[in-house]
Amino acid sequence: MMTEILEPVSRTAPSQQAVLEVKDLDVDIRTPKGTVRVVSKVGFSARSGKTLALLGESGCGKSMTAKAIAGLLDPVASVAGGSAHLESHDLFSMTAKQRRSVAGEGLGIVFQDALAALNPVYTIGTQLGEAFRIHRGASKKQAKVEAIELMRRVGIPEPETRVNSYPHQFSGGMRQRILIAMAVALSPKLLIADEPTTALDVTVQAQIMQLLRSLRTEEQMAVVLITHDLAVVAEEADDVCVMYAGNVVEQGSVETVFNRPTHPYTKGLLSSVPADAHRGSSLTSIPGSPPELSKIPTGCVYQDRCPLASAICREQRPELRPTGPAQSAACHFAEQVSALDPQSEPVTGQDSER
């Protein structure tokens, strides 16, 4: 969407009711070499009419967290612990039939690959109308009328004729709009948007995010936005949950976290965005790469890349603790992060005393 981060918009409206509450979520994957914990003790809440962003590098557990909540984990993955409540519904104790009854009206999801998510052999009208036939008992004719209205609502031109078209006959941006229409067809309480602007050009990205923003406001949905785009988070989200190696390392309001990060990883991400960059200038980056999830070190998950790493970081995993109003971080040295040079090399060799 944008090449540099804007100052997060101040959002001082009173807190809305939590629609989704996730606590201590663990997700395991079974591999030929054994079971791997890919999401560990993740917790957050999403509020009505607000957007919560799950932010982090690829492979940090964002999508796996979302799939666990939506009940869409691959057969080799499973929820190993924790809870997720969608209002009064305990999502992890539901049967498959109960899950289906919640889908649509309780929870909608927008996938990042629209072409793969849509069925190529059915018309768009048939796919959009399915929710009304299953959940509302609508006739085929009524469902088609609803599908046309949905297409009009999300900005598909000439919906009366294009309702009979197939997915491959739409552009990438139009297919993404159709996916959003399917997700919000029954006005869900919670919408999960998994990288909804992937592979779209900048103009279309902006249009898609504007559409999601409008629908969120109209329906007062809680939105969980999965992204690695810091500019999108600054523009669209109210709260942010920063994830690294399957763990939450910092969370809070976007305004607070972006203006005063208290975890070295968050600080590094924000510092890596070019500001006043010009041709030939060097770019800031975080040294190293995330650990393999099968080889998460004892202690802090970020220790191998952190300039503040010390003996306690290698021995004791920090817990999320308050670092300010509406903010918490999992770092032993959160108070020192503001003075941290993000280009510093991680500590190696002898431990420094702090």
State the main characteristics.
354 residues, alpha/beta, Rossmann fold, 8-stranded mixed β-sheet, 4-stranded antiparallel β-sheet, 12 helices, 12 strands, globular, disordered N terminus
Could you please describe the fold and organization of this structure?
The structure is a single chain. By secondary structure, the protein is of the alpha/beta class. It folds into 2 domains: 18-243, P-loop containing nucleotide triphosphate hydrolases (Rossmann fold), CATH 3.40.50.300; 262-274 and 284-339, no CATH class. Helices cover 31% and strands 23% of the residues. Strands 6-7-8-3-9-10-12-11 form an 8-stranded mixed beta sheet, sandwiched between helices. Strands 2-1-4-5 form a 4-stranded antiparallel beta sheet, with helices on one face. β4 and β5 (89-90) form a beta hairpin. α4 crosses α5 (140-153) and α7 (172-184) packs parallel to α8. Residues 1-15 and 347-354 have low confidence and may be disordered.
What's the helix and strand layout?
Blueprint: E1 18-31, E2 34-47, E3 51-55, H1 62-70, E4 77-86, E5 89-90, H2 96-102, E6 107-110, H3 114-117, H4 124-136, H5 140-153, H6 159-162, H7 172-184, E7 190-194, H8 202-219, E8 222-227, H9 230-236, E9 239-244, E10 247-253, H10 254-259, H11 264-271, H12 311-315, E11 321-324, E12 327-329
Parallel strand pairs: 3-8, 3-9, 6-7, 7-8
Antiparallel strand pairs: 1-2, 1-4, 4-5, 9-10, 10-12, 11-12
Q: Name the poorly predicted regions.
A: 1-15, 347-354
- For the record, the CATH class of the largest domain is Alpha Beta
CATH domain topology of the largest domain: Rossmann fold
Strand elements, count? 12
Order of helices and strands: EEEHEEHEHHHHHEHEHEEHHHEE
Alpha-carbon distance between the termini?
41 Å
The coarse silhouette is globular
Could you say which structural class the secondary elements and strand pairing correspond to?
Answer: alpha/beta
Instruction: Work out the helix count.
Output: 12
Question: What number of structural domains do the residues give?
Answer: 2
Overall residue-averaged pLDDT value: 89
How much of the residues is beta strand, in percent? Answer: 15-25%
CATH architecture classification of the largest domain: 3-Layer(aba) Sandwich
Helix amount, in percent? 25-40%
